[in-house]
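Progress against Task 2.4 (sequence-to-structure conversion) is shown through the following example record, which the project officer requested during the mid-term review.
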Amino acid sequence: MTTETQWRYDRFTWLEMKEVIARDPQPVVCIPFGTVEDHGPHLPLSTDNDILESVIAECGRRASGDILVTPTIPVGLDNHHMDFPGTLSVDMEVCLAYVSQVAISVARHGFTHIFIVNGHGSNQAICELAARKVVLETGIICANTTINAAVNPALVADVLHANRKGGWGSVAHACEYETAMMLHSFPELVQMDKAQRDVGQLKLKYFNWDHPEPSAYSWQDWWSRFSKEGICGDASAATPEFGALMFETTVTRFIEMAREFRTIPIRPRVDHH
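Structure tokens generated for the chain above:
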């Protein structure tokens, strides 16, 4: 068996998969869920999927069989970006049904711990609902998470905030972080001469993006109402060195998180009727 088939879910034969399912402990199955959308004038439409797949694949390679990665679900909820040519979008109801059915399929074979790994901010609510649906319908442990700090920085927040150069507001979309990640993994796809600072997102008393004060509510406007060319943050502050640091930190901590996640026990339900 090659290194490739040790982490790619779809590279096993069905007989080999029976052996994988019988392992103790089992690997965590990761289902990447991204999208195709504008990322400013300097990054390709594939950016969310590029970052997602590069990080999760490296996690699979380094995890010594503890992580399996399914094929990426490549298009998510993106209607709010449709003012920018090339964006693809699937209705939220269809996304929820599709993502949850993929995860339920994995659970039906006997896997007990599944991560839905989000690579796009507006998939977040869908991922949370899909994970809940899987738990309720199968009884296994399913959670949603992300490897993209622009979606949720929790996994790497300390390193992100200590090393960013653009200040608060610089990390949101096609931003300092995402541009740096692309400079690290796909430098040939980045047009840094077109990278700009565009911090058009609101900062109010009870609402903000990428500021230390907590937001009391969340909402999503049409992207073209606050972003001139698709950027939200400071793409001009990005460096490949920052990208390399964030990539390595994310991979190391994600593997550690996955190994912790699979220790969560499946406890019996108690019907108190």
